[in-house]
Each structure stands twice: as C-alpha cells, then as structure tokens.
Amino acid sequence: MRSMEFKMERPGLLKEGDQITVTEGVLPSNYYYTIDPSLAMSPNIPFRERLRTREGRVSAVIQNERGYYVTAEFDE
Fold first, then answer.
1. According to the model, what pLDDT value does residue 10 have?
2. Whole-angstrom Cα distance, residue 14 to residue 40?
3. For residues 22, 32, 30 and 60, what is the CA-based torsion angle, rounded to 10 degrees?
4. How many CB atoms lie within 10 A of CB 42?
5. What is the DSSP code string of the chain?
6. CA 57, CA 14: separation in Å to the nearest integer?
7. Are strands 30-35 and 45-46 parallel, antiparallel or unpaired?
8. Residue 74: which pLDDT band, with cuts at 50, 70 and 90?
9. Are strands 67-74 and 2-8 parallel, antiparallel or unpaired?
C-alpha cells in the first residue's frame, strides 16, 4: 500500500472512502498527479517514485492552516 498526499482547494470535493482515479502529468524532471476531474493535485514526484497504478481510495481529508489535504492509498 502506498500513501500520497494531494492539495485540495475547496472543502467537500472528496470524502473518506471515495474511489479515485488520477491522471499523470510530466515535468522536465518530475511527475505530478491530479485526482480526476481536477479535484486535487499532488506535489512534484521524482521519476524514481513514479506511481504505478492510477486507481486508489481516499483514506483521510484534513484541514489545517494551509488548506485542505487529501491522503489517498494505492495498491502497489
């Protein structure tokens, strides 16, 4: 099981237990992932840590002083 954190801009878009699909984006030296349809975005991920699966489940949604964060788990 692999956990990954995503930044969500507005509350209520996702909840614990939701099934998600992610889209992979490529930068010159990193990947980034977006929960479809553009609900939350991951930080930049180094090439060596590329996500191998595109489907997962939301395990937590947290609000702190910096915003809303979604933790998702992927079977890898």
1. 93
2. 9
3. -90
4. 21
5. -EEEEEEESSTTS--TT-EEEEEEEE-SSEEEEEETTTTEE---EEGGG----SEEEEEEEEEETTEEEEEEEE--
6. 10
7. antiparallel
8. very high
9. antiparallel
For tokens 């949604």, name the residue: 61
Six token digits for residue 51 = 């996500």
Question: Which residue is listed with tokens 């609900």?
Answer: 39
The residue behind tokens 């996702």 is 14
CB atoms closer than 10 angstroms to residue 46: 9
The single residue listed with the structure tokens 């801009």 is 9
Among 16, 32, 1, CA closest to 70: 16
pTM summary value = 0.91
State the Cα angle at 59 between 34 and 56, rounded to 5°.
50
What is the rounded distance in angstroms from the CA atom of residue 21 to the CA atom of residue 34? Answer: 8
